[in-house]
Every structure is written in C-alpha cells, then in structure tokens.
Design a protein that fits this description.
Layout lengths: L1 H7 L2 H60 L15 H12 L2 E6 L4 E3 L9 H13 L6 E7 L2 E11 L6 E10 H52 L15 H33 L1 H16 L7 H28 L10 E3 H11 L1 H6 L3 E5 L6 E3 L2 H17 L6 E9 L2 E9 L19 H6 L7 H11 L4 E6 L2 E9 L2
Parallel strand pairs: 7-9
Antiparallel strand pairs: 1-2, 1-5, 3-4, 4-5, 6-8, 9-10, 10-12, 11-12
Helix pairs in contact: 2-5, 5-6, 7-8, 8-13, 9-11, 11-13
C-alpha cells in the first residue's frame, strides 16, 4: 500500500494529474462561455425572427381586414366565397415558417388556431390571452415562459387600423423551446465528444512525454545506487539531443567518468602502495628486530642502521612521488591558457643539476637558444619533467661521457631532447619504461634510490598537456624527446 502511494506521488503522476486538471478546467471554462454565448445568440436570433414573422402576419391581418371592409364582406377571418380563406393562408404560413401563429381579435378572442394545438394546454392559452390585452400598436412583446415542461419563445404585435391606429387584433408568433433545446443539445453533444477526444489525446501526449522525461531520471536513480555500491561502469543513454535532459545525461556520464577514473587511480594507488612499500618496510622491520633480539652483533649494528635509515628515506620519497602523481592527475594545465619561457626553465634545471653532473664527471652539450621560446602549459610541471629526464640521463650515463640537453622550434612545436651515452636499453624494455614502479634490470643494481615513478610522472604530466614522449636506445645512445605547443 505504501509503495503504491509513493508511486502516485511520483513526477509522472503529478505531471499527468496537473495537466489533466488544467485541460479539464480549460474545457469547462471554454464550454461555459461557448454555451452561454451560443444560447443567448440563438435565442436572440429566434426571437428576432419570430418578431418579424409576427409583424408580417399582423400586416396581412390588417390588409385582409381592409379588403373585407371595402367590399362589405363578412367579419375578419370568416370563410368567404370566391376569396381564399385567411385561415388557410395562416395554415400555410405555419407550415412554411415552422412557427405557430396565434391570432386574437380586438376582444381578445382567439380566432386562430381554431383548434387547440397538442403542445399547448389551457393555461398556455390563458397566458397568451392575458398577454394579448397588454399588446399595443407599435409595442412588440418578447418574453419567455416555462409551463408544464413546455417552453414558449413569444413575439407579439398588435394589428392596427391604418386610419385611426386602433387595435383590430393581436398576433403572436410562438415557438416551443424544444426546437431551440434540440439544436442546443446537438451542440452540447458535439462539444462533449470533441472535449473527450481532446482530453484523451492530451492525456496520451502527456503520458508519453512524462514517461520519456521520467525514464532517464529513473535510470539515474538506478545508476546512483550502483555508484553507491562502488560500481562506476554504468552510463546514461543519449535520450535527447540539445535539450536539458541531454545535457543532464552528458553531465551525468562525465561525472561517472571522473568518479570511475578516481576510483581506478585510488585502487591503483593502494595496490601499488601496498606492493611497493612492502619491501622497504620488510627490510626496516627485519633489521630492527635483528638488532633488538641480538641476532645482529653490536659491531654490525651501525651498518644495518644506515641501511634502515636509507630505506626510510626511500620510503618517504616513494610516498611523496605517489602523492605527486595523484595530484597531477586531477589538474588541467592547459585550461588557463598560460605560457612560460621554456629556454629559461631549461637553464634553471641545468643549474640545479650542476652538482650531480659534476659528481659523475659528465660534460653537458647545452643546445638552448638565447632567444625565448614561449610554450603553453604549467611551468612547474614542465620543470619537473625536465628535471626528471636530466636526472635520469645523468644517473645512467657512463662516467666521463657527454649529456645532450637542447630544444628546437619546429613550426608550432618546441621539441626538447635529452640524450646520454651508457648501456643500451633492450627493445622489449622501451615500452615499459613509463609504467608505474617499473625498473630495468640494470637500474636495480645501479640505483637503489629510485622508486620507479620518475618517468611515469613525466608521461603523466605530458599527457595532461596533450603531448607524448618518445624514447630510443641504440649503440649505447639513449634519447628522450617530447614536444610542447608554442605561442
């Protein structure tokens, strides 16, 4: 029961009920206005028409009375030999006009119709007889009466003598309301039929539209529940193009991509952290336990304490580097559109590396133009790229050899190269150099200080700049090169 109530509180039912209520209210108001105006208009037209017919019949009565008076014939409305009976003319008028004529003489005696009409009873005739007394020449009567479920639309006029304007009788054109009601009921039937069709089509259209609008929302609800459980693989369908639902779906998918990327990086970080911290922690714990339990003799304690200190510093560098990687992956260095002097940055890196280069007795071939080259990107990130590449080249260069560190502008790119002379890297190792925590066999013995993240950080930073890095190693010469967009 509760689920059913919640279902009817949903957006689909709210929109359907609100739209249905508005359409129904609109149809009721329009129907009321339409029926009111149409009824008044139809009643006015029929009243005017009845008045015209009553006036016409009154003129016929006057002309007939004058003709009879001139020729000395019998009183008005009597059967006259050789002349058409006025009653016959009135019958013909009734048949042609569809209205019932009721004629009274000046004494309020009904002279037409001679017989009672089935639709009228005695009280109706009495009403018309009393109304005939009030009719004066030139004063038409228009009224409506409902009696015994019979309605009358009445137009009355006095038939006047043209010589002295005296009243010679009264003429009423009478129509039962059943004719007007029949036509009006036809209008009502047609209106309700049209209104029902409009209501049905409106509900159908709203139902389809509301379903299309709520479908992506329901899918988002299901997706968010999946996200809450840690599954970020769900994506929204592209329901619409160029509207708010489409923008919401695109934003939702973009959010899912970001969350999935962050979740992947988090898992990789924890996995790599647990894997690569295991070795230094095991070394530190093992040597510490050995010193404490006396396994390691006192004469060797200093040696192993130095190993513990070195492993601790390496552990600190490893954690710092991994934090740097995760920080880089959440930035967009090209968004701001800033530029920096690449040549000046290379000179600063070369100066900072002077001691390490000197300690290894290396020479440097610096191919850096005096003129500035302005590259697009984040200066601090690129300086770290330059530092990592130059440090890596100096670390694995043969003592007494020469390092190459230079940049050249080619069209809209600045190409930076770092080259050293040393051992040749096997071809199958080259694609793995930029993997996280990867070390070649030769570097394991030569460099215990490394954590295998330097080149991975280089690749990550350049990827954020929409650039790639290339490496080649032949005949003992290893070269790293990358490009940056320039202003």
């Amino acid at each position: 029961m509760k689920q059913r109530q919640e279902r009817f509180r949903g957006m689909y039912w709210r929109q359907l009920l609100v739209t249905a209520g508005m359409v129904l209210l609109t149809l009721v108001l329009l129907g009321f206005v339409f029926f009111s105006l149409s009824y008044i208009h139809m009643r006015g037209e029929q009243t005017a028409e009845l008045e015209k017919r009553a006036e016409a019949m009154a003129r016929e009565c006057v002309e007939y009375a004058e003709r009879e008076e001139k020729e000395g014939r019998r009183p008005l409305f009597a059967q006259i030999g050789g002349y058409p009976s006025f009653l016959n003319i009135a019958d013909l008028a009734v048949d042609l006009s569809g209205a019932q004529f009721v004629i009274y003489d000046k004494n309020q005696e009904r002279v037409y119709p001679i017989k009672d009409v089935p639709d009228y009873d005695k009280s109706d005739w009495d009403f018309l007889s009393g109304l005939a007394e009030t009719v004066r020449p030139g004063e038409p009567v228009q009224t409506f009466r409902q009696n015994h479920n019979v309605g009358f639309m009445i137009a009355g006029v006095a038939a006047a003598n043209p010589r002295d304007n005296s009243k010679v009788g009264s003429v009423f054109a009478v129509a039962t309301s059943s004719r007007l009601d029949s036509l009006w009921n036809t209008f009502i039937s047609l209106y309700f039929a049209a209104a029902s069709v409009i209501m049905l089509l409106s509900l159908l259209a709203v139902s389809v539209t509301a379903s299309q609008m709520t479908l992506p929302l329901k899918e988002m609800v299901r997706a968010t529940r999946r996200y809450a459980s840690g599954d970020f693989s769900v994506r929204m369908k592209d329901y619409y193009q160029g509207d708010e639902i489409g923008e919401l779906s695109a934003s939702f998918n973009q959010m899912a991509d970001i969350l999935q990327g962050q979740e992947v990086r988090r898992r990789e970080f924890l996995s790599n952290l647990s894997h690569d911290l295991k070795t230094p922690l095991t070394t530190i714990a093992g040597y510490t336990d050995g010193i404490l339990d006396g396994t390691i003799p006192p004469a060797s304690e200093r040696k192993y304490l130095e190993i513990i200190a070195e492993e601790s510093r390496r552990l600190s560098r490893m954690v710092r580097r991994m934090l740097d990687v995760n920080q880089f992956q959440d930035t967009d260095p090209l968004r701001s559109g800033r530029s920096f002097d690449l040549c000046e940055s290379m000179r600063r890196v070369l100066i900072s590396m002077e001691k390490k280069i000197t300690d290894r007795k290396l020479d440097v071939e610096a191919d850096i133009p005096d003129a500035s080259i302005y590259a697009l990107g984040d200066m601090d990130m690129i300086i770290q790229v330059l530092y990592n590449l130059l440090e890596n080249a100096a670390k694995f260069a043969a003592p007494g050899s020469t390092l190459y560190f230079g940049v050249r502008a080619r069209e809209n790119k600045a190409v930076v190269s770092v080259r050293n002379v040393g051992e040749t890297i096997p071809p199958d190792e080259l694609p793995l150099l930029f993997d996280r925590f990867h070390k070649t066999d030769r570097s394991r013995g030569a460099d215990r200080d490394g954590v295998g993240l330097g080149l991975y950080i280089v690749k990550t930073i350049l990827k954020l700049h929409r650039e790639e890095i290339c490496v080649s190693s032949q005949n003992g010469v290893t070269e790293f090169s990358f490009s940056l967009r320039i202003m």
